[in-house]
Design brief:
Helices cover 85% and strands 0% of the residues. It is mainly α. The longest helix is centred in the first third of the chain and has 48 residues.
């Protein structure tokens, strides 16, 4: 019977202790919590710190990647800037033909992110160099039959540049004009 008494007392003491912890945690919060709860809070904080550290490393890697892209773009811009057009008309036409291929191959990107802005710098330099070649060809021979073709390629590239940079504004403008036309139509119909 002494074993039963010890077990009963032990059980009552454990229930009382756990009930007391429950009440004190309810009333006082973490200030009176058991070491188990403190350890789990520390683990939670450690997990959040690990998550912040991982996000920080990812941001750093993204920034490093952008820096590498920027360096490559700047290197290519330097090559375009130092490119010299020939004074010979036939050679100049060949150079413009090569640059027109570059213009169509290197598309402008929507300027929604930083990488697109960096990549568009090269396209801007290429477009400006192409314009210089057009000016030179027009100065050498304003009646060159290929000049309209090169001008058309230049206008197309300029339009794409403008569209990619300001497409949201263009869409809003088209919607606004459409709305005005629709209102005018309903007004003339007497609706």
């Amino acid at each position: 019977m002494s074993d039963d008494g010890i077990f009963g007392k032990s059980f009552k003491r454990e229930v009382g202790k756990n009930t007391g912890k429950l009440v004190s945690n309810f009333l006082f919060g973490d200030k009176w919590s058991t070491p188990h709860k403190v350890i789990s809070e520390k683990a939670k904080i450690q997990g959040e710190n690990d998550k912040i550290r991982i996000e920080s490393n990812e941001k750093r890697k993204d920034k490093d990647q952008l820096n590498l892209i920027d360096a490559a773009v700047l290197s290519n811009i330097d090559k375009v800037a130092t490119f010299r057009y020939s004074a010979d008309k036939t050679e100049l036409i060949e150079q413009l033909s090569e640059l027109s291929v570059q213009l169509s191959a290197n598309k402008y990107h929507n300027t929604g992110d930083e990488e697109a802005k960096i990549r568009n710098k090269f396209n801007d330099a290429l477009l400006e160099k192409y314009k210089q070649g057009l000016i030179r060809l027009k100065a050498i021979d304003p009646n060159e039959p290929l000049l309209p073709y090169y001008k058309k390629a230049y206008r197309k590239a300029r339009f794409i540049k403008s569209w990619k940079r300001f497409y949201v504004l263009y869409i809003l403008l088209f919607l606004f004009i459409g709305f005005l036309l629709l209102v005018g139509f309903f007004d003339t119909m007497g609706w």
